[in-house]
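Sat 14:20. Reprocessing the chain from the morning session after the first attempt stalled halfway. Input below, unchanged.
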Amino acid sequence: MAEALTINGVSLASYAFMTSDISGLMTVPERRGENVVVPQRHGRIRQLGKRFDANEIVLPLWIVGADPDTGALPTLPEELDIFFERRDQLLKLLYADPLLLQYTRPNGHTVQAYGEVVDVLDFTRRHAEPLAQVSVAIEITNAFWEDADSVSQEITGPTETTVELTEFAGATAPMSDLVITVFGPCNNPMFTHGPQWVRFNGVIDAGRQLQIDIGRWLVGPGTGSPWLPSVGQVEQGRPGPWLELDPSVQPFEITFTHTTGGSATATISGRRKYLSP
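Finished this time. Tokens:
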């Protein structure tokens, strides 16, 4: 399968719209935050926990007044308006809200990102030829590319059970838009990944669920029997999201601790994230 790039489902590899160079897609987001300079001290104090900033990619595009499928060019003067139709179609596409970019790798794996146009360089067109070139800068607002679908890692066992995060293998960026679901009975569940941990101080009875939505800072009863868990019962080990899966942490695994006295089950669900498509 060939590489493919689309915006809101429209290919940028047709005869009408095409990218002449997709190397701009490979741009990786920068770290946000600066280290601290202290007078009378050598070097700098490193600021820990730097986050990734929004990422900007630049796409050079050709717009051709041609049939997208056959590449047939207009032959009559009155047909030259096809170029302007193609230009207007591309502009409407680029300024759509939301703007969804999807990139399919040669192995068929598709990743996606949402963005918005932040800059358009001048159109270059010679005389009345039915083609023009323009470069478009798009900001990837959430910093990372991601899979279209979520994966789910199950953890079952007594306290201190550690599992390898095989379902999230292949990710290259931190993942904090996660949902943890704990199935009762379970007491005081805690999840540890590298230096990070999150704990719920409370009892989840049989037939109930505890759902910790890390991306939205919410807790709820999931799809089990109704009850009212509270955000005040959640503790975390470091500032930032309650928990984040970081593929740079090795071994890439998570530990499930609880005081149930037997076996308990939980799942961690979310989308794999990527620094570059």
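The chain has a mean pLDDT of 91.
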